[in-house]
Amino acid sequence: MASISAPVLAGDLQPVAKYKAWRLFVAGEGGDKICTIIAEPAASTPKSVRRGDVFISVNHRPAQQTFYEVAVQVGYPFSAISEPFATIDSNVFKFFSGVQAHNDADESAWLYHLEDAPKMIKAMRAGSALIFKGTSARGT
Known about the structure:
single chain; 140 residues; 2 helices
C-alpha cells in the first residue's frame, strides 16, 4: 500500500491553467508548494444516487518526495470492505480507500501501488475512458 497524505483542501488550491478536461491548481509556496491536476467525470452512475464532489487528481508534493500520487474523490463514504479500482481500456488499477487507511478521508481512494502510477498516467493519456468503481458504506 502506498503512503498517502491528507487531501489538499479545495480552499487552498489556486487555479493556474486548463488543458482539455484537466485543470491545474497549486497550493503553498516555496518548498511547501503542491501541484494538483484535477478532472471531473463525464458521467456518474447510477444517476439516481446523490453524491458530493467527484474527481480524479494527480498530485505532486515535492517537499514530501511524492510525485504522481493518483487519488479519486467519489462523493460518498466507502464501505470498509470496498476494493475500489479503476479500469482504463484493458488496464486495471487497484486502489485503497480512506476508510481502509483510517485517515478520515472516507470519500477518497489512492492508487494501491505507487509504482503503478507511471503506467496509470500513461494509460490515462492514451486511453479513451477511465471507469472507477467502489462500494459505498450503504452497499451500493
